[in-house]
From TrEMBL:
This is MhpC protein. Keywords: Hydrolase. SUPFAM superfamilies: alpha/beta-Hydrolases (SSF53474). One of its GO terms (cellular component) is membrane. Residues 60-158 form the AB hydrolase-1 domain. It comes from Pseudomonas fildesensis.
Amino acid sequence: MIYPLINQSLPAMLGEDFYFPNEIIDQAFRVSDFPDLKVSSFSTSDRVNLAYWEAGAGQPLIFIPGWSANGAMYFHLMHILSNHYHVYVLDVRNQGFSEKTASGNRISRYAMDVKEFAEHLGVPEAHYCGWSMGASVMWAYIDLFGTQGIRTLSIIDQAPSIYCHADWTEQQRLDAGAFTTSPERMIDSYVNMTTTNQLISGTRVLERAMAIDSPYFHNAISLVQAAIKDDMAFTGLVLFDHVTNDWRDVIQTKIDVPTAIFTGEYSDWLDSQKWMNSVIRNSVLYVYDKAEQGDHFLAFKNPQKFATDLHSFLQRS
């Protein structure tokens, strides 16, 4: 049985304090230097226990992580942004401290989890930020429930459709950001963390994930490795549904709130992010260059810039 977590500190959950490999000015050098950070959980309507991280006070800002990610990756971002917002990071099912389950591994169910999470918090309206698969979860949320309750939407580097249909034109593929015609083989490479050829997975995302070229990112990955025990037998269950969805109709017709789109020069999906910016009214596009760590992990490799840009966008909106 998975027991609920209630306002537990991270050192208490780890059984000891954790020291980061890189000491960064104005950032915590150990997790106990961020005493406001707590981890709790709630039970969904289908009885799955989901963990969430929170810190700070003010307007609620809710992050939905990407595939296989969790709140530990957001440590530095939460440390920065909690000065302005009540920040939450939801560990989606099978990720982070959340329960491992063979049920509900569909993006639509993850969207329902987000809705029930907001209801659990008693938050009628919040800023939402979805990174990678977390963006797809937010598109599913909007498809199912509309934008009620979403004050602003921020998207970090997610292709509207991962799967490329054989009859698409090259422009359609670029607009969608599609990069595989073989979902099963692509999923196998992700679950087993093995490289494959560009026809199977036309992306450099695993290469960029292994480029530990930022002290912030090194710290975040080190904390993830110390705190989280992933089980790819469960984590990989959602991938087929994630890969085969096409969200372009939702993006083009259903997003009616201020929207920020974050991407970078290293991104394999830069054209698709520009397409989203062209079809979403009131959207703002941020393109980080290579010197600014403009890849799929830009928010974690350059959290100071990302937090500044996000805060500026939220204040304007």
